[in-house]
Amino acid sequence: MKKLAAAFAMSLLLAGCASGGSSSERERFFRAAGKPVANPSALVKAELAFARLAREEGQWTAFRETATADAVMFVPNLSSAQVWLKGKADPAQAVDWQPHKIHMSCDGIMGVVTGAWQAANGSTGSFVTIWEKQDARERRLRGQEEEWKWVFDHGVPVDTPLPEPDFVETEVASCKGGPVPPNIPAPENGKKIGGQSLDKTFQWSATQAADGKRGLTVLLWNGEAYRPVVDEDFGVPQP
């Protein structure tokens, strides 16, 4: 994990050098103007802090403290995270995890992280977490540090551990055009919970059909249309 974080930091440095400083200049301009700026490295920081909190304070304690009041999880059905987590005892050793890919809205308010996890019993898996910046404008005006909390989280086991990438892959939605998010209906007699960034360049929907089948879709605006960056079918919960 340390190797991955260092590689990501180096990739940001090289990207800044290659652009001749234009990226950082643009960021300073927008920050001075009070406009939000997408910063995928903030989600790397949030994920690493989340994993560290789980190791130091306990797994479910960390999940409770970093989730929004209306966050949801598949456990195994689509449920309120805070209700499911309330009073849940922490395991002796927390699961560890690392971010592999990040997709973020143009305004930097919302993003999704996918990656790998490893449990103490040797099992491994993949995860997807959707993060939302909290009270961004108010905190900026007060000179407070940004705060991220997750609104959706789910992990599944895999037979073969995911390969560790050399760098954390990142993608930011296009700021061009006038995105109008599609209306993704809830399954018949099923449930749908989702949201979108303030600039509408990022949209997510978690669904569960009447037969129990679960899914997650995350759409990112590319300047002309929405493209699915996460399209997961988690199947029907096993008894």
Automatic annotation (TrEMBL):
Keywords: Signal. Residues 1-20 form the signal peptide. PROSITE patterns: PROKAR_LIPOPROTEIN. This is Group 4 capsule polysaccharide lipoprotein gfcB, YjbF.
